[in-house]
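Slide 14.
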Amino acid sequence: MQAQKHDVVVVGSGAGGATVARELSRAGMNVIVVERGEDKFPLPLSIATSKEGIDIYQAFGAGGATVLCNGNGVRALEQDLAGLGIDLEREYCELEAELQIAPIAESLLSENGSLKLLEILDASGIHMKRMPKFVDPGKCVGCGMCSLGCPNGAKWSAVEFFGDALSHGAEIIYNTAVEKVLIENHRAVGIEASGPAGKVRIAADVVILAAGGLKTPVILQSSGFDKAGRRLFIDLCEIWQGVTPEIDISREAPMQLVYTDMAQSHRISLSTVHLRNKEKIKYYCGDKADLFVDANWIGILVKIGDESVGRVFADGTIAKGVTANDRKKFEEGGVMAREILRKAGAADEAIIKLDRVYGGHNGATAAIGDLVNTDLQTEVSNLFVCDGSVLPFAPGLPPVLTIMALAKRLANHLV
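Slide 15: predicted structure.
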């Protein structure tokens, strides 16, 4: 068992872990990042399935889920967190400037695709808009591979922050799964993990858990925090599809348009999606696949802020279903999805809802107000959490920018 000593050990390398590691190493602190996955590209998608049969997406490896996300940079839960005394305006502005976050460039949208759809919807009073992205339009070729790992370097990922952290003296260990936090006299003093060479202990003055909404609560429970994992949201999603003979979005980046009129009040957002792979279309659409394989079509992703009534158990198993209130939100979102598809030219008989319900924005398992305070510190001194686990409510929107903003705020608190 190896013993090492650092100022800070960060567990996980996604949006929260990479950001806080970079900020602290830039400030001159001795930082080590421990990542359970590999240093390779693209990362494999990991799917956890709840006892109720819902698939929940996660990613392990360099950059975490930022490598496999669609590059959407929105201020999720901004007002809610401000209501708790967490003002992220400065952090949002800094990140938006650095990552050059802006509505997806018109050059990446086609005249007979999203631009035409926007014109039609605007004339109908439906306020869909271009999704804010951390995507370089000069490098994006519209291949649709964002969620598989951008092959062209157009989409920002947390891997870029690691180069900066390394240049400022940070260390990163891969293929090493943290099992528990070492605590002495009610103070975090390091972590214990298992890696290729066996058990390893890393001593540190500060421990920051950023292993994601499904893994962080397991580590916390192993470390004596019985309340961890007793709440869970995943931003449940379902997809509507419609054949649109006159509108073709197949050559555009995914999730290019977003509808947020219901986002704050109802935790419901809608965005455009598309698949090119015919085999995947057949897989997802089943006996309706023939409608879409050789046709122009638009998918509308309905994302809801689901009730945080799921649970992550100490052994990593998950309980998460769809509640009556969740179904009501899906019904509300479905009404708008069908209306958008109709305005786009889809006939009622050419509109379907896919059977599959899934999620991937995992949080509330170590929420602000439950397990951590507004500085993201637990009841144990110098033990912090900095990932989606701390979000107290399901946003119904991509949370990556908000997690990064929280990480910058935490770093400022620690420096």
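Speaker note: The two ends are 30 Å apart (CA to CA).
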